């Protein structure tokens, strides 16, 4: 039984017909989003950034992943700390569709440079970590910051930011290199449809450059790289997922936990 998340009406699951819905239609709501875009004049030394195919904690070496997964409620007698952790390995890969939307990998072997990394988690996330699987070296950890107030952007108990890593010089790697992803959630209560993703902004290797190899120790630092493009891609990816699901299921009303489900 699918309890919640993006993939409503997934393969083998069935939505109710409209005449079977007992939940009254919810009132219309209006939401606003405010954002800031910084830009500058293009310079000759500017380089294009794009997202790597990696990383989704629900995937593996042959599959991009489902984007989301469920966190079951813990049994304190077995897991006293109630921390649910997943770990997987994935190739760096190159960006294409929105995290592949579950497609299998097709990887071309070439050099790229990592300049920026940020994780994505939902409420109750405890952090997501990235390692070089070959050397076991730590590349980046992205930790959530939780809001403490009631004003927009500081909502109490919700993730309002994730820490980031920048690399100067860029971190050289191959698209076939394997990265290890470890992500944790608080499982005091169960959660459906959570995510543990990495947005890795990479660039093609210039003809003549010096950078840090993936087999070397990496220290995240401030950088002069223009990563607005990577943020834009990440935002478009998130919006694309939402639009895809909305279009797929348009015409269905909200089904709550009291609505009978036919299997």
Automatic annotation (TrEMBL):
Lineage top rank: taxon: Eukaryota
Species source reads Thraustotheca clavata
Q: Name the InterPro entries for this protein.
A: Stress_up-reg_Nod19
The protein's name in its UniProt record:
Uncharacterized protein
**Pfam families (alphabetical):** SURNod19
